[in-house]
Structure formats: C-alpha cells, structure tokens
User: Fold this.
Amino acid sequence: MDTRDEERRRVAEHIEWQKQGAWVVLWGVYTRRFWAYACWPVIPREGVVISAERPDHLYTDMRQVEREHGYLRWRYGRR
Assistant:
C-alpha cells in the first residue's frame, strides 16, 4: 500500500472519530476517494452515502446532509 493511502486512511479515521459514531468514514484505495456512510436514525430509508476526493469537501458535504435531514436537531435537540 502506498504511504499516501495509509495517511488518507488515518484522515478518514479522524473524521469518523470527530463525528462520534454518526458516520462510518473510509478511504477507498481503488476509487481514490473518501466515503462516508450515515448511521443515525433520522436519515431516509435508502440511506445516505457521500464521497469526495478531498477530506475537507467530504466534511462540508457531511454537514450539509446533517442539516438537510435534521440530524443536529435530533442529536442535540436544536430547533
């Protein structure tokens, strides 16, 4: 495995840690993209999967999806 892949895998682990179990985040060695799978109860039945080439874009998209589906309201009781 390329050392850059190992570094990106660690970045994915860090993002997952930051999200406190609300997402499963992976680095796709073959796809060369970061992938995030929502795992909270207020997502649509078909689920939510996000991918991005850069971790900052992934994180931004994750936040957008959280807002769209009321995750922050569910998690923190915000209105």
